[in-house]
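4.2 Preliminary Data

To establish feasibility before requesting continued support, the project team ran the inverse folding procedure on a target of 419 residues. The structure was first converted into the token representation described in Section 3, and no sequence information of any kind was made available to the design step. The complete token record follows.
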């Protein structure tokens, strides 16, 4: 934006009539949303609602449109379902009360009202899903209403000034998530696959939004124990991440970690090499993009280390974890939740290797951090403390044997999180 445009915008904000201010506020809201400046975008959307109320009054469809946009902003930009539901319901009340009394004056007006209804019902459905406290049929019902309004809108000869905020792909995803909430896995997978087909036809097979859709299908396939299909979709997600991001990026790190877990979930030895390759790729991508101290990097390291312990490569796992402490730059990262998790895994490894003294020292450090973070009565703290108390009471030569016989040996190292 050049100086003259900035001066014009400032003049409009200060001195312009409400209608001009509304147009400028809408433009700023769209620009801030594209630039991911979420607080500024929501502030402008609030201003749009206030200006629409001033210009059109409390019972006009333009106010409903502004409130629907504000609700959608709260949902998609800030993930605030309570605020989204409040403003979406206000918008719905205004629009539905007008729909029967005052027919739309033109096809353009009807199209805008239908587009607003799509936004309202989609926002309500997704917000209900986020809150997880409403009847499970509500999100599906509202998503289907959004789908019906969108179909009516698509059959209308309408050329709106603004592109509808919600498209067919969004409706399919909403219905897929609603089906997942009801544990209808086949139906959910079908909706996500429809969303994939729509997105590929609209944007091509390298669209960034394909990655989370492929991963959703992979998760469902794993739950159904269809491991080949799960790996196939996880591979597709990984390919998409490489297509739109650099190799050393959080997106590639996440996709590679996801793919590694998909291979591990099969439990088949033939997938060991592939799992290790993608776990390594994930860790390297995170380290180069975010640094060793970042929580996402540490999380990838923990998963990789647990898996290495699981397949018998305990020395390699221990060295990776030890190196992560040595390469940290922020001293505060020696005393946080991520540090306690790494110390716990290292303690498990030492216990498995019969290095009891070292295991006790590492688990003691882990317990100190957990007490500071969670308190002495938290279940995580109690679990470690019980193990330490038992180890402390036994003669050194009996400690490992007793731990194994009493099933007190930590098992965290033997579990890899699901997708």
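Position-by-position output of the design step:
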């Amino acid at each position: 934006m050049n100086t003259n445009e900035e001066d014009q915008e400032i003049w409009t904000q200060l001195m312009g009539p409400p209608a001009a201010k509304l147009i400028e506020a809408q433009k700023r809201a769209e620009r801030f949303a594209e630039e991911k400046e979420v607080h500024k975008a929501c502030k402008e959307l609030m201003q749009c609602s206030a200006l629409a109320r001033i210009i059109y009054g409390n019972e006009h469809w333009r106010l409903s449109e502004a409130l629907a946009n504000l609700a959608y902003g709260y949902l998609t930009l800030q993930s605030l379902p309570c605020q989204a539901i409040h403003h979406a319901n206000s918008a719905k009340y205004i629009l539905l009360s007008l729909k029967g009394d005052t027919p739309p004056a033109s096809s353009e007006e009807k199209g805008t009202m239908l587009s607003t209804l799509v936004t309202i019902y989609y926002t309500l459905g997704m917000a209900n899903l986020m809150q997880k406290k409403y009847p499970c049929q509500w999100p599906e019902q509202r998503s289907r209403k959004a789908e019906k309004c969108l179909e009516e809108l698509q059959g209308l000869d309408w050329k709106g000034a603004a592109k509808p905020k919600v498209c067919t792909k969004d409706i399919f995803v909403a219905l897929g998530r609603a089906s997942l909430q009801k544990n209808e896995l086949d139906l959910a997978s079908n909706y996500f696959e429809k969303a994939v087909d729509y997105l590929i036809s609209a944007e091509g097979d390298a669209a960034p939004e394909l990655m989370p859709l492929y991963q959703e299908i992979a998760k469902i396939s794993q739950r159904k124990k269809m491991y080949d299909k799960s790996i196939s979709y996880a591979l597709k997600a990984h390919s998409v991440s490489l297509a739109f991001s650099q190799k050393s990026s959080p997106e590639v790190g996440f996709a590679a970690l996801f793919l590694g877990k998909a291979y591990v979930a099969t439990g088949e030895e033939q997938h060991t090499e592939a799992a290790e390759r993608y776990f390594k790729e994930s860790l390297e991508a995170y380290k180069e993009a975010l640094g060793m101290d970042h929580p996402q990097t540490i999380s990838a390291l923990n998963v990789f280390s647990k898996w290495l312990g699981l397949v018998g490569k305990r020395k390699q796992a221990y060295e990776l974890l030890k190196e992560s402490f040595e390469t940290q730059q922020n001293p505060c990262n020696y005393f946080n939740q991520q540090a306690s998790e790494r110390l716990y895994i290292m303690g498990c490894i030492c216990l498995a290797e019969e290095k009891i003294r070292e295991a006790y020292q590492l688990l003691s450090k882990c317990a100190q951090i957990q007490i500071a973070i969670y308190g002495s009565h938290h279940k995580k703290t109690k679990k470690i403390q019980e193990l330490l108390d038992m180890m402390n009471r036994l003669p050194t030569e009996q400690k490992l044997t007793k731990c194994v016989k009493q099933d007190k040996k930590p098992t965290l190292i033997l579990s890899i999180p699901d997708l």
